[in-house]
Amino acid sequence: MGLAKVAALLLRNYHIGCCHECREYNIALRTEMKRREVATSDPQRAAELAAYFTHAKLEPYHTALALGSAMRIFAKLKNYNSCATFCRRLLELNSTQKASRAYFKPADCQPIK
Fold it and tell me: 42-79, pLDDT tens digit by residue?
């Protein structure tokens, strides 16, 4: 294979990857916009859309923001099992210390009995 063919293949693969990433962000942002639309009228549906938003393949920092948002929404609805799932995923993601510190403060932590 010539150098030009290899370069063309690499460029093609890069563009395909960008298209997949753009599609994920498009779906995620449409989901978030719909969630904000129904947030006041139907809190259960808004929580469901927030959960869907966390499953998009976004950059780690954006995923951390989505998980934090879903965590707060489910906590307000007193759905603590789902809230705990989002908390665990956020801790496992460990994208940046700054993003994690925005949601967790040592004084807020309670030991589980």
Answer: 999 999 999 999 999 999 889 999 999 999 999 999 99
The mean per-residue pLDDT over the stretch 6-14 comes to: 77
Distance CA 22, CA 59 (A): 11
Runs of H (alpha helix) within 39-79: 43-53, 60-76
Domain map (residue ranges) of the chain:
3-107
| Count of C-beta atoms within a 10 Å radius of residue 32 | 17
Instruction: Characterise 108 by phi-psi region: left (phi > 0), alpha (psi -120 to 50), beta (else).
Output: alpha
Evaluate whether the domain defined by 3-107 bears CATH number 2.40.240: no
